[in-house]
């Protein structure tokens, strides 16, 4: 079995020359994206759509952006990623609708065996990652291979996520853990104990699902 097939099936594989060729094609597109004038929003969106495997409506990624391939990344509608998103997408990365990603976030599907004798064979792996809809991933978060984050969840800045996180919670820390659920009471606040003013609250309530 060839290594590209092994990689795509989440089996142990060796990143051989065939894998490298795929990587070069993605890196050419990323180099062009990262060297485009950052104020050309429409052009940047056009280019990121050629890098990602699947995109919904309204897809914004602020350069620089880095990935192994790019084509294993699928995002839904209204996706926003701030500066310096890094995605090791040797396996599938699936992201839902209305997801906000803060600066310096890293999503890793890639890894290596723990035992040195196994690791020194050059075998590695990629295990898929998924992020549900309506999530906010804080700055400098690291998401490790195999992690699934439920819809509606907020991940605090600087967290390292090694295990699945359920839907509709606030989670943070290293390792990341659930702090509390998100409730309807949270709707009235825009930051900690600061409440929306009356004008802004009308907009919030009009967005009720």
Describe the model.
This protein has a single domain (about 5-205), classed as 3 Solenoid (UDP N-Acetylglucosamine Acyltransferase, domain 1), CATH 2.160.10.10. It contains five helices and 21 strands. It has helices at about 5-10, 15-35, 40-50, 115-120, 200-205; strands at about 15, 60, 65, 75, 80, 85-90, 95, 100, 105-110, 110, 125, 130, 135, 140-145, 150, 155, 160, 170, 175-180, 190, 195. Strands 2-5-8-13-16-18-19 form a seven-stranded mixed sheet. A five-stranded parallel sheet has the order 3-6-9-14-17. The radius of gyration is 19 Å and the shape is globular. It starts with a helix and ends with a helix.
| Cα-atom radius of gyration | 19 Å
Number of strand elements? 21
CATH top level label: Mainly Beta
What fraction of residues sit in β-strands? 25-35%
**Count of domains:** 1
Report the sheet with the most strands, covering strand number, pairing sense and barrel closure. Answer: 7 strands, mixed
CATH topology name, in short, is UDP N-Acetylglucosamine Acyltransferase, domain 1
Q: Figure out the total of helices.
A: 5
Mean pLDDT: 96
N/C terminus separation: 48 Å
What share of the residues lie within helices? 10-25%
Looking at the overall shape, the CATH architecture is 3 Solenoid
| CATH fourth-tier homologous superfamily | Hexapeptide repeat proteins
Structural class: alpha/beta
Shape verdict: globular
């Amino acid at each position: 079995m060839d290594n590209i097939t092994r990689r795509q099936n989440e089996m142990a594989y060796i990143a051989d020359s065939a894998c490298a060729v795929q990587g070069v094609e993605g890196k050419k597109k990323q180099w062009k994206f990262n060297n485009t004038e950052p104020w050309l929003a429409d052009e940047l969106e056009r280019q990121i759509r050629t890098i990602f495997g699947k995109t919904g409506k309204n897809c914004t990624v602020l350069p620089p952006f880095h990935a192994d391939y790019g084509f294993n990344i699928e995002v839904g509608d209204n996706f926003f990623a701030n500066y310096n998103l890094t995605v090791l997408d040797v396996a599938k990365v699936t992201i839902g609708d209305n997801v906000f990603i803060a600066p310096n976030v890293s999503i890793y599907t890639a890894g290596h065996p723990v035992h040195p004798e196994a690791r020194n064979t050059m075998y590695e792996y990629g295990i898929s990652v998924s992020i549900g809809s309506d999530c906010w991933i804080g700055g400098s978060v690291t998401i490790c291979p195999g992690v699934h984050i439920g819809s509606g969840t907020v991940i605090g800045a600087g967290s390292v996520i090694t295990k699945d996180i359920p839907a509709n919670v606030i989670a943070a820390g290293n390792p990341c853990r659930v702090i509390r659920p998100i409730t309807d009471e949270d709707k009235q606040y825009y930051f900690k104990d600061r409440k929306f003013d009356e004008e802004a609250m009308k907009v919030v309530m009009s967005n009720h699902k």
